[in-house]
Amino acid sequence: MKKFWSFVLMMTLVLFVLSACNSDSSSKEDKTSGDKGNNKYAFVFKNTGNPYGEKMQEGFEKAINEIGGEVILRSPEQPTAEGQIQIIEQLITQNVTAIAVAANDFDALEPVLKKAMNKGIKVLSVDSAINANSRMLHVNQANPERIGRIQIEAVSEMINGEGEIAILSATSQASNQNLWIEWMKKELEDPKYANIKLVKVAYGDDLRDKSVSETEALLKSYPNLKAIIAPTTVGIAAAGKVLTDKNLGGKVALTGLGLPSEMASYIENGVSPWMYLWNPIDVGYAAGYAAADLVNDKKGEVGETFELGKLGSFEVVKDGEGTQVMLGDPFKFDAKNIAEWKDVY
Ligand code: RAM
Which structural domain range is residue 60 located in? Predict the structure, then answer.
């Protein structure tokens, strides 16, 4: 009898241990799949109050909602590296799974982003790149060479190949604008632009008021100015307003990169004959899917294919020392098509 009861006890114990193991493994499975759903995807834009950044964040959020996961959208008030570093430190403490950043500086985020990657956080840049040591991948909105060169081609056409031009950029450290400006300068080396003179690169810091005052300063310092190129949505909209208020349409041409929603009236009134951009919602969306691919163990290495949701498959290619996926070509907006786009972004 004693033997019988000890056998029953043993069997009960064995069954208990087995079922405990079982439930442990099933809870682990649940946790893993739950974990995937509980991944925290952070997006850090350059600064708050920029509608372009808000559109990108909208796209990022859309992607993560499709994929599953928590979305954290952050931007410093001012477009500085310091502000982004502070935010990224907080995101590391929050234990986020991935960080996508539109950087205010190419190199300055390296220590904090390396710290993030050492903790297993997946890091990518989008829109405005960080150096290769600081990221696993860059999501590039469009070919920087094309973006730069077409601005000069456009401006030359607008002023018949002759006269003084100026650039109104974002911050002096913005890696996307700086790269595009390099390509503009390269394009200007072509002898066909011998009569075009770039007199100044001004920085409105992607702040509306500063962009307005920088435009006014350009007009004052260079009374013969024929055109302004603003490769920033904040800058071009501010310049559009100044040129409109001063009735300079047809006298000082304006082109660059602008949001159709902000630029429609300045295209319709002729202040900006045409300008370019890509879909910022798609760029943010692409960053969301790219972040998820990294979380799902893609490395961001040349030759890998990233699945970017409804945008399709993109091959990872080299970008200097680092790697990137490149979305498309910039799109031209003019009086003929602006009405179709102004309600979209
Ligand atoms: C501004 C920002 C952004 C840039 C666009 C074109 O909104 O500087 O980084 O991509 O312009």
Answer: 37-141+280-329
